[in-house]
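name: query_chain
kind: protein
chains: 1
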Amino acid sequence: METKVAIVTGSNKGIGFEIVKGLCQNFKGSVYLTSRNEERGRRAVQKLEDLGLRPLFHKLDVTSESSIEEFAKFISSHHSGIDVFINNAGILDFDKPLPTFEEAQKLIDTNFYSILKISKILYPLLKNDARIINISSDWGLLSNIRKQTWLDILAKDDLTIDEILQFVDDFLQHVKNGKSSFVSFAGHNGDYKVSKVALSALTFVQQKQFIAQGKDISVNCVHPGFVKTDMTKGMGDFTPERGARAPLYLALEAPQSLKGTFVWHDCHQVNWDD
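structure:
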């Protein structure tokens, strides 16, 4: 029951797969590769086993409360808690810079609302000195938003989760109002930008909540770089292995005192609201 536990969501390929590989090599404990598709997840585990590594697999659909609850029951019955949790699962369709409302809703469900579900169901299992790493993006910097009202609200020191939810809801209303309204909010691929800005903002709010609760849990978000993956249609500057560098730094090497920051792909901190 006392084995350390690390969990990576959406980790059957790309950056998540490389994070799992790095954890298997350097984390002293159980490493869970999770994915919503069991067949693809088990194939990924087999690839790592062929390299002599020993990841564990569990099916996890981050958009499904019942799937998250099932995973939480499994973890609580097999382990004493969670030491490292990496929110990596995410989607983006580069070919749809102006998505429909339904497409934008699906993306935000996966990239942002899922983290709220995970927070409610899985975060109670976090150990007191756990580390949460949120995979964000340079599109998760506040400067990607074009609405001055939201720039001002999201930069507040006393920002609340309710205000972040209002920000996302306002964006979705802009999507409903048509293409020009969509573009005026955050430009092309605005749904992805809004999802990652909301995730970054949530990182800082949740860190303050953990501190207020007297917990030593760290929450940081990270831009892994422009990485060549299926999601980017093979475009990018870095390999997935290079993209895993900063997330692995936060999981394995960073001081526990590093809290509530936005970390760049080269492991230095940046101001998300500049």
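note: The mean pLDDT is 94.
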